[in-house]
Design brief:
The longest helix is centred in the C-terminal third of the chain and has 24 residues. Helix 3 crosses helix 5. The protein has a five-stranded mixed β-sheet. It is α/β, with parallel strands linked by helices and about 160 residues long.
């Protein structure tokens, strides 16, 4: 199964595509969609939407996964993040592929085994689980790959439960 993971952000939206059978994972591509910080939100959302559409077109994933919105101390930040998630969900719906949504806790438990893991621990485990050599470009791309791994693992567990 080919999975696109997305780590939503208004300045940097990370993405990662993996090929996985639910147990072994191989990174196909990863990157970041960057927006101009001083641009109006609607223009930033348009850049993110176009970037995600391009990734979906180029890599043709079977499914995609995004992180659920988590409660934030800053309500404005949480609302902006929700807008980006909406753009991501729309792009996924337009591509007509299955969607998975996971809490930050579930993603960290799935990848690291500990729900309060630090970003560096997540990045290390992503590299370990995928056999990826070198450093992943950004934490955003690493987090997106973690979302994809969580989805692939969850899908495998769900399939085993129905057999």
């Amino acid at each position: 199964m080919r999975v696109l993971g997305i780590d939503c952000g208004t300045e940097r939206t990370g993405w990662g595509v993996i090929e996985s059978d639910g147990r072994s994972h191989r990174v196909l591509a990863h990157g970041v969609i960057r927006t101009a910080v001083k641009s109006p939100l609607e223009q930033r959302l348009a850049v993110i939407a176009q970037g995600l559409r391009s990734v979906l077109q180029s890599h043709q994933p079977d499914s995609a996964a995004v992180e659920e919105v988590f409660y934030s101390q800053n309500v404005k930040t949480a609302l902006k993040l929700a807008h980006v998630r909406g753009v991501a969900l729309l792009a996924i719906a337009e591509a007509q592929i299955a969607l998975g949504e996971y809490s930050p806790l579930a993603i960290k438990v799935s990848v690291v085994g500990y729900g309060r893991a630090e970003k560096q621990q997540v990045q290390l485990m992503v590299r370990t689980l995928t056999g990826l050599q070198g450093v992943i470009e950004t934490e955003d791309a690493s987090d997106a790959l973690a979302v994809a791994i969580c989805h692939a693992t969850t899908c495998r567990t769900a399939l085993k439960a129905t057999v």
